[in-house]
Amino acid sequence: MSISATKKAAVIAGNRTHASDTGSPEVQVAILSERITALQEHFKGNPKDHHGRRGLLFMVGRRNRLLTYLARTDRDRYQNLIKRLGLRK
């Protein structure tokens, strides 16, 4: 499951650090979070989709690695991102 182009553009616009930013850790984590949320909704109706669940676990792992990198390199940006996305309560 992927998110629509308009939704992805809105997520990028809300999390970028400068005008042409599309690949910063903040943007990547925000996009992954949207995809993870969409997949969680998908699994409510399709509980036997084990191949999709494997992809979900890969996305969660990638998001975790990006968050760890961001926490290690710039703690302020990490704290702002966590607060903005509502992760790790």
What's this entry about, in short?
This protein is mostly helical. The protein contains 4 helices and no strands.
What order do the helices and strands come in, and which of them pair?
Layout: H1 5-15, H2 25-45, H3 50-73, H4 75-85
How many β-strands, per DSSP? 0
Mean pLDDT reading: 94
CATH topology: Helix Hairpins
Radius of gyration from the CA trace? 14 Å
Helical proportion, percent range: over 70%
Tell me the domain tally.
1
- Figure out the total of helices: 4
The CATH C-level class name = Mainly Alpha
What structural class results from the helix and strand content? mainly alpha
Tell me the CATH architecture. Answer: Orthogonal Bundle
Our measurement of the CA-to-CA distance between the termini, rounded to an integer number of angstroms, reads 26 Å
Share of β-strand residues: under 5%
- What is the H/E order? HHHH
CATH superfamily: S15/NS1, RNA-binding
Categorize the overall geometry.
globular
- Biggest sheet: strands, sense, closure? none
Low-confidence stretches: none
If you had to describe this structure to a student in words, what would you say it looks like?
This protein has a single domain, classed as S15/NS1, RNA-binding (Helix Hairpins, Orthogonal Bundle). It is globular, with a radius of gyration of 14 Å. It contains four helices and no strands. With 89 residues, the chain is mostly helical. 16% of the residues are buried.
